[in-house]
Amino acid sequence: MLKYFTKRLVALVLIITAISIGSFYMIHLLPGDLATVILGSGNTPENKKKLFAQLGLDKGLVHQYLTWMSHVLRGDLGKSYITNESINTSIAKALPIDLEMIVVSQIVAFAAAIPLAMKAAKKPNGLFDRISNGVTFGLLSVPSFIIVVYLVLIIAIKWQVPGTGPASFTRFPEWSWLFSDTGTFFTTLKDNLMSLLIPSLTLSIGSFVVYFRVLRSDLIATLQEEYITMARSKGLSRRRIMWRHAFRPSSVALLGTAGINIGGLIAGGFVVQYLLSIPGLGSLLIASITLQDYLVIQSTVFVVAVAVIVINFAVDFITTLVDPRIARD
Amino acid sequence: MSQEINSTNQNPAGDLLVVENLTTTFQTARGALPAVGGVSFRLGANEILGVVGESGSGKTVLSRTIMGLQPRTNVEVGGSVLLDGHQIVGATDEDLRDIWGTKVAMIFQDPMTSLNPVTKIGKQIGESLQVRLGMNKAEAKARVIELLTLVGIPSPEERYDAYPTQLSGGMRQRVMIAIALACNPTLLLADEPTTGLDVTIQAQILNLLDELQLKMKMSVILVTHDLGVVATRTDRIIVMYAGRIVEMGTTKEVFRNHKMPYTRALLESTPRVSNPSHTRLQTIPGRPPNLLKLTEGCAFAPRCSRATEKCSQERPTLEPTGVDGHYFACWNPLEDQAAPVSIQTGTIKEIGEDNVRG
Ligand SMILES: Nc1ncnc2c1ncn2[C@@H]1O[C@H](COP(=O)(O)OP(=O)(O)O)[C@@H](O)[C@H]1O
Ligand code: SF4
Ligand SMILES: [Mg+2]
Fold first, then answer.
1. Selected residue of A122, A220, A227 to mutate for chain B interface (largest B Cβ count, 10 A)
2. How confident is the model at residue A161 (pLDDT cuts 50, 70, 90)?
3. Is the CB of residue B311 below 6 angstroms from any atom belonging to ligand 2?
4. Range with the poorest average pLDDT among A25-29, A185-189, A220-224, B39-43
5. CB of B300 closer than 6 A to ligand 2?
6. Which ligand number lies closest to the CA of residue B294?
7. What is the mean pLDDT of residues B197-218?
8. Which of A29, A128, B237, B259 is 20–30 Å from B308 (CA)?
9. B261 touches ligand 2 (CB under 6 Å)
10. Which residue segments constitute the domains of chain A, with CATH numbers given?
């Protein structure tokens, strides 16, 4: 077990190093000239030279990379060339929005997928199973940008659910309830959750569909196992058999899917943020690409990639807790 | 056709188990499959009954149906199983939960697939103790350690935290036995408890079962495809073919005076010590019948050297020989045997006539 985690940890460090090199080098592949972007009409060879010396861009690539990494490792992502704003601050403002969207959407997705998959797997090919299977199969092919439009139309426009309309997205994020004691706790938490309703629901539907289908088919297979008959023969309740004896082994596949899903989830979140003008990492990234704000692009990509890797590492860890066979070699 | 058996009651105190005309039919994509086709027998308290037959003869389905543990869907069960006054046929899982584990328990055929791979074995044994007997965690753990010791697992405190994949096949089968015995069942169904284990371990496990049967005063149904396993350990034997009983009687009578050619064929395909080693075992020619296409006649007819025209037209019923509740189903029964067939048992020792139980 310890050996397994040491191995995984070494892999984690190597992958993050590779990602840092990747996101650093990627910027140098992009078209466009930094000097033109920053200096505009003042882009004379002389000014350019001065600027590059100031930014450290006159040094070799390796030197540039090491300088960047040494700052990153000290927790300093640098400043935007264009807005002069600290990238740490921009990301700190945007990241919680992505995190909250993802966390809430995953809670909703699991809370819906687990009991429904259990219900479907109880009677494979039964009425409930066939309907849920059909509906989720259909939803599988609906992209999130369609779902979000329908949710806005239904929830915000047709039902007029207060606090969910387009105006709420720009109020994003209502974090005051966490950080300050101005305003009452519940009104702001409620505001926060209401403005989150449509974006999180959009993300959760995509995840729910995948989780439901993976868990359902895995549960159906697990329920055929001999150890399930064995558990029945002990005189255990159906509920206990489902949770203790079927769900635990099946949740390995579910967790694996969730880990893989994280990357797509972040991307899906970006699309939703773009469509609803939510000031999360996605909007930050798109804005910095539009402005050709190289260092911001590089830092955002790096932070997101590291987040994906760390989340996957955590999922692996949880999986080994559920199924100890995985960590044994 | 009647398979009513009334005179096999070995136990004056009354029968623990009465099975009457039991049928188990699977609805398959290719039609109805009668895995158990009308089985009747009785079992007394403390009795050990052997059920033998080739693979596919319906032994597993029979033992599961007796317990009410058949799959939940696509299966139809008929007839009656009375276990200590409880009617099993037609009862739901919810009804049977009260007697599963406590009144009747099962040792499953394959200890590799019958244990939950992601749960510690201590937890798997202790689960029934907590859920069924209401023990708290500490009591259950103490009892699990006792049970692990009872079934001969060394250093039980350490093994408590082991996962099934960390144990050998023999050890896993011992864990299965501990699970089955956890709630002191009155009837233990052992479905090929030693198939797949090597010969020395087989003998150990079977001896352990014998010992525990005496200690815990259970009735045991020992299911196996190997007559050698049942020879020294059972009071009575049921021989199954194509989902039906074809011969039944005390172990002694079935070994000495079997009437049914299939029983003879089974005996001849069991290893014998009297043969020089490396003698090829005689296998029963032909294959077991396709249960989807059973005919009106004797199911063994296509493979039987004694078959006559009548055999393929009419199914023989179980008839008594008049000795010790010995029954057989055959139109052309074998003559009384000149010499009893001696066979090699799990303990690899020749069994004399006197060693045959019954
Ligand atoms: N769930 C099931 N569905 C359909 N057929 C089954 C099922 N279980 C067992 N059978 C069939 O019933 C017959 C008897 O099987 P089984 O009782 O396992 O034999 P044995 O234990 O004597 O080897 C076999 O032909 C098998 O294919
Ligand atoms: S009834 Fe006929 S076919 Fe069947 S076992 Fe007896 S002799 Fe053979
Ligand atoms: Mg079997």
1. A227
2. confident
3. yes
4. A185-189
5. yes
6. 1
7. 89
8. B237
9. yes
10. 13-73 (no CATH), 88-328 (1.10.3720.10)
Q: Tell me, what's the ipTM?
A: 0.86
Contact predicate B232/B357, CB 8 Å: yes
Considering only CA atoms, which of B287, B283, B285, B244 is closest in space to residue B267? B283
- Return the residue in A223, A224, A226, A233 with the most chain B beta carbons within 10 A, the one to mutate for interface testing: A233
Q: Computed over its alpha carbons, how large is the radius of gyration of chain B?
A: 20
- In the sheet that holds B327-328, the strands lie side by side as B104-107, B187-191, B219-224, B48-52, B236-241, B244-250, B327-328, B319-320
Mean pLDDT across chain A: 86
B179 interaction partners in chain A (CB closer than 8 Å): 230, 234
Q: pTM of the entire structure?
A: 0.83
pLDDT in tens, A241-260: 999 999 999 998 899 899 88
Q: Any idea which ligand is nearest the CA of B110? A: 3
B113 and A226 within 8 Å at the Cβ level: the answer is yes
Residues B60-82, mean pLDDT to the nearest whole number: 95
- Provide the pLDDT for residue B229: 84
The answer to whether A323 contacts B118, with C-beta atoms less than 8 Å apart, is yes
CA nearest neighbour of B327 among B6, B48, B1: B6
Mean pLDDT of B268-297: 75
Which amino acid belongs to residue A221?
A
The radius of gyration computed from the CA coordinates of chain A, to the nearest angstrom, equals 24
DSSP lists the bridge partners of residue B237 as B50, B249
Put simply, the answer to whether A234 touches B102 (Cβ < 8 Å) is no
- Average pLDDT value for residue range B39-63: 95
User: For residue B115, which residues of chain A lie inside 8 Å, CB to CB?
Assistant: 227, 230
Q: Which of B79, B45, B3 is nearest to B185 (CA)?
A: B45
> Of the candidates A229, A231, A322, which has its C-beta nearest B118's C-beta?
A322
Taking alpha carbons only, the member of A241, A244, A253 closest to residue A216 is A253
Interface test with B, best of A230, A252, A254, A325 (most B CBs within 10 A): A230
Locate B178 and state its tokens: 């501990």
Q: Can you read off the two tokens belonging to residue B252? A: 């002694």
Given 3.40.50.300, 3.30.450.20, 2.10.60.10, 3.40.720.10, which CATH number is that of B15-103+185-349? 3.40.50.300
Instruction: Give the tens place of pLDDT for each residue, B16-41.
Output: 999 999 999 999 999 999 999 999 99
CA distance B235 to chain A (A): 26
- Among all residues of chain B, which has the CA nearest to that of A324? B118
Looking at A3-17, A86-100, B3-17, which range is the least confident one?
A: B3-17
A1 in helix, strand or coil?
Answer: coil
